[in-house]
Amino acid sequence: MSDYRPGSFTRDAASPATDLTVPQGANRSPASFDACLRAIERVAEVVEQETFALERHQRSNLGDFNHRKSHGLLELTRAFRALGPAGAGQGLEPRLRALDATLKRNAAVLRMHLEAVQEVSTVMARAIRDGESDGTYSAAIRTSGGRG
Known about the structure:
4 helices
């Protein structure tokens, strides 16, 4: 996704062949199925927003994103429980696959940022350590092979 558009993860984004009706055998109401769809969309929306911000190096409140993702997961879990196992199958599968792809992309971007932070912290720690040392012992250890 090149540009983030609010609402880009909506039902309209589903392929025309995708059936978003309550699956046969579901023992819950269409409202429960609809609640699951809405919860999936909201989680995906938050994850897409976070990914967008990270990719553009925008200063953002990652704590807020974390809170919103946790809340979305709770909401999704509750919606799945209300729907029951028979209703959570085939009808939601396309949306769940799309959410999975969104989450994997987000994880890759987060991993890249974490690795960058680790590299920077390693460089800073090394600079601090080298700045505090007068070189008396470290030079002797390097040249004498560890004998001092």
